[in-house]
TrEMBL record:
Domain of life: Bacteria
Start and end residues of each stretch annotated as Disordered: 341-400
Taxonomy of the source species: Bacteria, Bacillati, Bacillota, Clostridia, Eubacteriales
Name of the protein this chain belongs to: VCBS repeat-containing protein
Signal peptide: 1-21
UniProt keyword list: Signal
Composition skew (Polar residues), residue ranges: 378-390
Entries under InterPro entries matching the protein: Integrin_alpha_N
């Protein structure tokens, strides 16, 4: 009751505020009403209610591409849209209250129920359509969930032309699923991650349509580090699809694995085996926000690899040097990042080895103050990082094959992409508790500065490091904080590349 009162009070307050700035149509009662149906939805609903002889209660998918209980799609390839509706019967005496799914077709302006069937759960988790049976037929994939949202079941439906109805061709328990042409056949394949209630490592099954039938092709167990699924992504690299899975470990860290279809063996294979490098171990990171993602928007999903903590924020474990790798696009994993020295004789732990022939990674020492101003009280020794354009990379630098390099600020939830040539040649310094700046580790020249502001705070001006407030550009908003970046002029930095390369972490 308290929640309802608070909701009504909030709506009344919104109306009063709107009245101060101008007229606003509608009343509190109208605002509290359910979303109004379109004309097509209304006609479909009327026919569905007539068909069941009662009042259908619409069931909304919880996530995914389709979030409406009505999905209009050309299911049978006749050039006209049919309607798929998810609903429950309010008058039903059934105790399980399972979701029902119906297919309706329109002819001469009138809708008719062609098919109606009980689903596999009390909730609709996700809805997808696929070209598994060919480009002219839409296959319906529905993920159902129980009331506790833990037990999930997947159903695959196809249209039967001769009967003008839908047929369920596969059902199974699952935790996540994905659709893509993994086998290179020209039509979608289905990959299903096993249910989290299944004992042992998570298993990934591949199903594809052969001779007109959906058949299991192969299955593979994920690395035992992945205790449950935190995210699943389809990645396209070099013309081939692969599957990237983020998983939580028993120790609370996040790791990733990547699978692909090996045409030679006819089965799924791990990219770790192909590269002779254990991707889950390489990608181990703390915090749920640093997920795999298409960080450069080229269709390939890159996996983050933490190179080391930034020493200026080492006590808070706040900032990290992070590279993103497209492991499907490389033949051999390599890395040339130098571990940082936090204090003499002590290095920040990293899952990555220091390549041979690089010498002492702590040789760069401190960064001189380019402005002549006193150091902030909170400043610490600089972190080693990447190459600035004013200082070419050393000739003995080992090759690198990551696609994206930069800084992840885990406390404030953003990632700043930096040029790959800056690796091992830039340093981070603190400016108070939140703000920081990036400097050329060799010359000490300030390259850019970042200010993180709360709701009522304003940009600060000051010297070479901070610059003028009007030189800053807001690049992100994360929760109650806003992220501003100022690129120092005349440094040769591609300002647009830096400003566009700030990503909010999920």
């Amino acid at each position: 009751m308290k929640k309802v009162v608070l909701t009504v009070a909030a709506l009344l307050l919104a109306l009063l505020c709107a009245a101060c700035s101008g007229p606003m149509g509608g009343s509190v009662e109208e605002l509290l009403e359910a979303p109004k149906l379109s004309q097509s939805q209304t006609l479909v609903m009327e026919e569905l209610n007539r068909y069941i002889g009662g009042s259908a209660k619409l069931q909304y998918p919880r996530r995914g591409e389709f979030l409406s209980p009505f999905v209009f799609k050309d299911i049978n390839g006749d050039g006209r849209e049919e309607a798929v509706v998810f609903y429950g019967d309010e008058g039903s005496e059934s105790k399980n209250k399972y979701v029902r799914v119906a297919l309706l077709a329109q002819e001469d302006g009138k809708w008719t129920v062609l098919w109606d069937e009980e689903g596999l759960g009390t909730e609709v988790e996700a809805v997808s359509f696929s070209s598994m049976y060919g480009p002219d037929t839409a296959t319906l994939i529905v993920g159902y969930a129980s009331a506790n949202l833990k037990d999930k079941f997947l159903a695959v439906y196809t249209y039967k032309e001769d009967e003008h109805t839908m047929q369920k061709v596969d059902e199974r328990s699952y935790s996540e699923y994905a659709l893509a042409d993994f086998t290179g056949s020209g039509t979608d394949d289905l990959v299903v991650l096993s249910s989290l209630t299944q004992p042992g490592p998570m298993e990934v099954s591949l199903l594809t349509v052969r001779e007109g039938e959906l058949q299991p092709v192969t299955a593979i167990s994920l690395d035992s580090l992945l205790q449950d699924c935190a995210g699943i992504y389809t990645s396209l690299s070099n013309g081939q699809f692969s599957l990237v899975v983020d998983g939580n470990t028993s120790g609370g860290t996040l790791v990733s694995e990547q699978l692909y279809f090996d045409s030679r063996t006819g089965g799924l294979a791990s990219m770790s085996t192909k590269l002779t490098a254990n991707i889950p171990t390489l990608s181990t990171r703390v915090g749920a926000s640093l997920r795999s993602r298409d960080v450069d928007e080229d269709g390939a999903v890159e996996i983050p690899v933490v190179l080391g903590n930034v020493s200026a924020f080492s006590t808070e474990q706040r900032m990290q040097w992070v590279s993103f790798y497209d492991f499907a696009a490389i033949d051999e994993y390599q890395n040339n990042f130098e571990k940082e020295a936090v204090s003499p004789g002590r290095q920040i732990p990293s899952v990555l080895p220091v390549p041979t022939g690089r010498g002492d990674s702590s040789r760069q020492g401190g960064v001189p103050d380019p402005s002549g101003e006193d150091e902030p009280e909170s400043a610490s020794q600089p972190a080693s990082g990447a190459d600035s354009q004013s200082v070419p990379p050393p000739e003995e630098a080992a090759p690198t094959n990551e696609k994206v390099f930069g800084l992840a600020d885990l406390s404030y939830g953003y990632y700043m992409r930096l040029p790959l040539s800056w690796k091992n040649r830039v340093a981070v310094e603190r400016l108070g508790s939140r703000n920081w700046y990036l400097a050329d580790a060799a010359s000490g020249e300030t390259l850019l500065a970042v200010q993180i502001l709360g709701p009522e705070e304003e940009l600060v001006s000051g010297g070479v490091r901070l610059g003028r407030a009007e030189e800053y550009t807001q690049v992100a908003a994360v929760g109650r904080y806003r992220i501003f970046v100022r690129i120092r002029p005349d440094t040769g930095i591609d300002e647009a590349e830096i400003l566009a390369g700030v990503t909010v972490l999920s």
